[in-house]
Design goal:
- This protein is mostly beta strands and 153 residues long.
- The chain has a single domain (3-145), classed as Beta Barrel (Lipocalin), CATH 2.40.128.
- The protein has one helix spanning 3-16, and strands at residues 30-36, 45-54, 58-68, 74-84, 88-97, 106-111, 117-123, 129-135.
- It has an 8-stranded antiparallel barrel.
- Strand 4 and strand 5 form a beta hairpin.
- The longest helix has 14 residues, at 3-16.
């Protein structure tokens, strides 16, 4: 961890009494993802943050989704993104590998203050949908965060 990040984390704890979402390290774990796009569920999907670095407004991120739908669509989507101080997460897919049945998309969501859940997510391109994720080592338990009855437009 960089010296700047260490100082940032220490200051955040002193000032806020807890770490804001942007101070949480999202790397080093596999996240279970659930999603729904109006046609398929994506409850067997994994998310990995490979890199997280401080920026002027929060954190820069990179990583990938390993997508798998109930309709058999699969593929790895590489992304870059940002995590703002208020926990707002924005990811932009940049490349697909390992499958031709998905497309890159833009993702918006909110990271909780503990850095253990990503909620209220939407993806905006292809077949728009909703998503959420839990930092659980890829055990597939995020499904409870995504109600498949949710309206997707």
């Amino acid at each position: 961890m960089s010296a700047f990040r260490d100082v940032f984390l220490a200051a955040a704890v002193l000032f806020f009494g807890a770490l804001p979402a942007a101070a949480q390290d999202l790397t080093g774990a596999v996240w279970s993802v659930c999603g729904y796009d109006g046609a398929y569920t994506w409850h067997d999907t994994r998310l990995v943050f490979l890199d997280q670095s401080a920026t002027e407004t929060g954190m820069g991120l990179s990583g990938y989704f390993d997508w798998r739908s109930s309709g058999g669509h699969t593929g790895r989507e590489w992304f870059h993104g940002t995590l703002d101080a208020d926990g707002s997460l924005a990811l932009q897919g940049v490349e697909i590998s390992g499958g031709a049945s998905i497309v890159t998309s833009r993702y918006l969501a909110q990271v909780n203050d503990e850095g253990t859940a990503i909620v209220d997510g939407v993806w905006l391109d292809g077949a728009p949908g909703i998503w959420a994720a839990l930092r659980d080592g890829g055990q597939g338990t995020a499904e409870r965060l995504c109600g498949t009855e949710a309206q997707v437009s």
